[in-house]
Design goal:
heterodimer, A: alpha/beta, D-Maltodextrin-Binding Protein, domain 2, 6-stranded mixed beta sheet, 5 helices, 6 strands, B: mainly beta, Porin, 16-stranded antiparallel barrel, 16 strands, 12% helix, globular
């Protein structure tokens, strides 16, 4: 009996060890264009802390400092730019954003961000939606939107 | 029997109709450029369970030749946020898992959420209505396949057989959040009434479906979670005092007794790019009193699991877990229980080694498979396995599940 448990435990520890030590299989495909956080031109601020940015994209901080609603726009979970944005600007991984959103959506304690299906749609929606925030490759940013600098 | 299936089919049709009406594409078409403060989401899953070299049934008749398909989860929710600090939320759930849940539609949650104070660094608010109990890492979304680490949650802590006791509360929830460079803290405190009106909870606590009914009593729950670096490290502690009474039938050998359930859970998780490690440890004090001298008892149970998840790429991940449950930590091998009651010792513990894979076919469709090697029967459903003598200590469980979300 005791031997059996010990055996189980060792098997478990060994497999966990394998999981941890397994080589980091895929390295992120870095695009040459850096990603920038963008906001609607009516949003008064130009700088934001990484922490607040995380709270915004985690759908937990819902209002700008003046009390107006924040509208969050994101690309699909499997979009390369979404992956790049999560890692570079938020310093977290896309799966963490997904599980944070799902916890809110399926317990009723929050709402999901607005989904856009292309960078062009992202640019247009952020440019035309008051209080909007999103992200784009720097080369695709024009005068219709503002860049928000992350500190 | 026929009547039952007619009702079941009827409710299924209604649910499908509701899903069709509420499907986001319809809403999108209606107000394509509008800012949707109304959101609708949902999920649908079909599972399969096969238990081998055993008489133990899980989620239906899983021991028979072709296994059990008696395992379905359907949920649809809507949330409406007319103001930045006001949200209405509700979810309907239909869950079919063998004899424990028969697939009826029930209100999973329904509440109004008002955020009284909100700044960049702080938040404080109140939720009124039926809220999911904040408990451990997984309880609030335990019926949503996409949010679970495996098809079956670690049963030592998220036991399915007395699930309603810890599922949701009808009452008041206060919540607060603090965000700082050194980490975020979220605190929730609930005062409310648990749901005890299902026979599965009754059977799990009082050993079988008794002639009388459990009655709900005011209960308390709280959880604090600390998250560092946007959730890279997550630490939590949850505690509760869940109370229920018993309303005996006219002819009942049980009197109007009471149940006190006091669980305490410590949770820890570390999230890296390709792997996550999660562990939770729980102590559960249970006291049954004023029922009958043979039924009255109090004991403290102990549960824990270690879980590793490895993500090969965004589409594929594997999970490995070792999950242990002792119904009474002073009688871990169940020998005292056997001496006292004549029931099998293995009904007082369960050690479950699980390996599983998850394949995200698309972000909306997920396929899962897993294998459990279990020693002990402590979390087996009393309704699916009415005779404790007709179970086996060592057993295997295979499960598969396909899930869709929107």
């Amino acid at each position: 009996m005791a031997a059996r448990i010990t055996e189980h435990c060792w098997g478990c520890i060994f497999l966990l060890f394998l999981l941890i030590c397994a080589p980091l299989a895929v390295s992120a495909t870095q695009t040459s264009d850096p990603v920038e956080v963008i906001v609607h031109s009516g949003v008064g601020i130009r700088h934001l802390s990484r922490n607040s940015l995380r709270a915004i994209f985690g759908m937990r901080l819902r209002a700008w400092q003046d009390g107006s609603p924040i509208r969050v726009f994101v690309l699909p979970d499997d979009a390369p730019l979404h992956n790049l944005f999560a890692k570079e600007k938020l310093n977290i991984f896309p799966y963490q954003l997904r599980s944070a959103w799902d916890r809110l959506i399926f317990s009723g304690t929050g709402q999901a961000p607005f989904l856009v299906n292309s960078e062009e749609e992202m640019r247009v929606r952020v440019a035309t939606t008051p209080g909007a925030i999103g992200y784009l490759k720097r080369v695709n940013i024009d005068d219709s939107i503002q860049i928000l600098h992350v500190e | 029997m026929l009547n039952k299936s007619v009702i079941l089919i009827g409710s299924l049709i209604r649910l499908v109709l509701l899903l069709t009406i509420l499907h986001p594409s319809c809403i999108k078409a209606a107000d394509a450029q509008e800012l949707k403060s109304l959101q609708v989401h949902g999920f649908l899953s079909q599972g399969y369970i096969k238990t081998t070299s055993t008489r133990n049934d899980v989620f239906g008749d899983s021991t028979r030749g072709r296994g059990s398909f008696d395992f379905r989860e359907i949920g649809v929710n809507a949330s409406y946020r007319p103001l930045t600090n006001l949200q209405f939320s509700g979810q309907l759930l239909s869950r079919q898992t063998g004899e424990d849940s028969k697939g009826g539609i029930r209100i999973d949650y329904g509440f109004v959420d008002y955020t009284a104070i909100t700044t960049e660094a702080k938040e404080f608010g109140i939720r009124l209505g039926r809220t999911k109990n904040p408990f451990g890492f997984y309880n609030e979304t335990r019926d949503v396949p996409f949010t679970r680490p495996s098809i079956l949650l670690p049963q030592s802590i998220y036991f399915d057989r007395a699930r309603n006791l810890g599922l949701a509360s009808d009452g008041v929830q206060l919540y607060g959040e603090s965000r700082a460079d050194w980490g975020d803290i979220t605190v929730q405190f609930v005062t409310g009434f648990p749901q005890v009106d299902d026979k599965s909870t009754e059977a799990a606590i009082l050993r079988k479906n008794q002639p009388g009914d459990l009655t709900t009593r005011l209960s308390y729950l709280g959880r604090m979670i600390y998250e560092r670096d946007g959730g890279r490290l997550r630490l939590g502690v949850s505690g509760a005092q869940v109370n229920a009474g018993y309303d005996p039938a006219a002819r009942d050998f049980l009197s109007a007794g009471s149940i006190e359930f006091v669980p305490l859970i410590f949770s820890a998780q570390y999230n890296a790019e390709h792997w996550s490690i999660t562990s939770e440890y729980a102590l559960r004090y249970i006291e049954l009193k004023n029922f009958h001298p043979l039924v009255d008892q109090s004991f403290t149970g102990e549960s824990f699991y270690f879980q590793g998840i490895y993500r090969f790429n965004p589409a594929w991940e594997a999970v490995l877990r070792y999950d242990v449950l002792f119904t009474d930590r002073k009688d871990r091998d169940g020998s005292e229980w056997r001496a006292k009651t004549g029931l099998p010792a293995d009904s007082r513990f369960a050690k479950d080694l699980t390996v599983g894979v998850r394949w995200n076919i698309t972000p909306a469709i997920m396929l899962r498979g897993e294998y459990h090697r279990v020693n002990g029967t402590a979390w087996l459903s009393t309704l699916d396995n009415p005779d404790p003598a007709f179970t086996d200590q060592h057993w295997n469980l295979f499960a598969a599940q396909i899930s869709y979300r929107f």
